[in-house]
Backbone:
């Protein structure tokens, strides 16, 4: 019995971890499989794990939609400019905080830290 | 790996919409799984109904404390033990709204898990080896070595998690988008702020709320920082 205890323990561990993994990744699986379903299958009672005849209609419709392309371009634009701006300002501010001694440095640093204490999102 | 997926996807709208679809009472996948499992195994069906009953009674009780009237509680108790084939009424019933939001937030636990992973990797292996040589059991090794060395990470997660939970907005906004007028049991502090200032256009009231939110968060954070000396260990050597 003692010899098998290690095996039993590792099997149990793997079962629990696999279950947790399935649970955590299930919404993503469901998202992908729902995106391949037709509208009838999405709203149908009864579980449709994998669509019978998967269609790419939804994806085709997205890429033919002018609004989507416009929104995508806007996102890219925002990200690029925001990233460039933050990178430049972050370097300057970090240099000012770490290398230059100036009056009121600690107060300003604490103010900056207090903006970090209130995250907008996780 | 799967646990880090919520880190990447976070609370983005696509994931929230997927959850909304999954939590649908009639055709949602979660309820369908619950239904089929309870049909296949009557024992699990009893457990499911018992859990539904407990959840509804507790929520009705606390809603009653909030409003001062226990109509809902007496109605739930009058209805008695849930009938067969009962499923949770995730987003549609005021008794289940908090549970749906909690489910979503629990799913997004990957960020904290990453921090704990880093903390666990930071614990020197020699400490565990030495304890093992001295004949410490796994339980002892956890409480005497791992847990004290993890307390800074627990503290960080506690602070950041409390702040972000007090500011919860997106899940409620996406999940209850269509339930208009929104049930009052779903409204969080920040949602109330948004509702007041951007749909009723009482901007002054909204800004007052946002300052109060800031003060509440500040007080909670300060209390946590004051109490950290009692249980957080920073230096071991």
Residues:
């Amino acid at each position: 019995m003692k010899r098998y205890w290690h095996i039993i323990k590792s099997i149990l561990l793997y079962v629990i971890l696999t279950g947790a993994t399935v649970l955590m990744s299930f919404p993503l699986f469901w998202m992908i499989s729902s995106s391949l379903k037709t509208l009838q299958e999405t709203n149908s009672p009864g579980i449709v794990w994998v669509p019978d005849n998967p269609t790419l209609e939804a994806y085709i419709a997205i890429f033919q939609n002018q609004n989507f392309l416009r929104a995508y371009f806007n996102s890219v634009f925002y990200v690029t400019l925001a990233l460039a701006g933050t990178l430049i300002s972050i370097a300057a501010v970090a240099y000012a905080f770490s290398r230059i001694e100036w009056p009121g440095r600690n107060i300003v640093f604490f103010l900056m830290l207090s903006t970090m204490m209130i995250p907008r999102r996780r | 790996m799967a646990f880090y997926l919520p880190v990447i996807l976070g609370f983005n709208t696509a994931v929230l919409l997927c959850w909304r679809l999954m939590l649908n009472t009639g055709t949602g996948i979660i309820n369908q799984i619950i239904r089929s499992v309870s049909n296949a195994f009557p024992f699990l069906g009893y457990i499911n109904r018992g859990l539904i009953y407990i959840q509804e009674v507790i929520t009705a009780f606390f809603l009653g404390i909030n409003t001062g009237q226990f109509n809902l509680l007496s109605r739930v108790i009058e209805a008695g033990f849930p009938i067969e084939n009962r499923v949770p009424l995730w987003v549609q019933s005021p008794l289940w709204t908090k549970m749906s939001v909690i489910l979503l937030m629990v799913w997004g636990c990957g960020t904290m898990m990453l921090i704990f992973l880093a903390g666990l990797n930071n614990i020197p292996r020699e400490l565990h080896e030495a304890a093992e040589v001295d004949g410490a059991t796994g339980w002892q090794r956890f409480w005497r070595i791992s847990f004290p060395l993890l307390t800074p990470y627990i503290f960080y997660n506690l602070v950041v998690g409390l702040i972000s939970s007090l500011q919860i907005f997106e899940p409620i906004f996406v999940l209850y988008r269509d339930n208009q007028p929104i049930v009052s049991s779903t409204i969080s502090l920040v949602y109330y702020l948004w509702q007041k200032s951007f749909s009723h256009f009482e901007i002054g009231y909204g800004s007052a709320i946002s300052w109060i939110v800031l003060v509440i968060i500040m007080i909670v954070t300060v209390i946590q920082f004051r109490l950290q000396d009692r249980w957080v260990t920073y230096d071991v050597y």
Remarks:
- Helices of chain A lie at 2-35, 39-42, 57-64, 66-99, 105-116.
- Chain A has a mean pLDDT of 85.
- The interface with chain B takes residues 20-22, 24-25, 27-28, 30-31, 34, 42-47, 117-122 of chain A (CB under 8 Å).
- The longest helix of chain A spans residues 2-35.
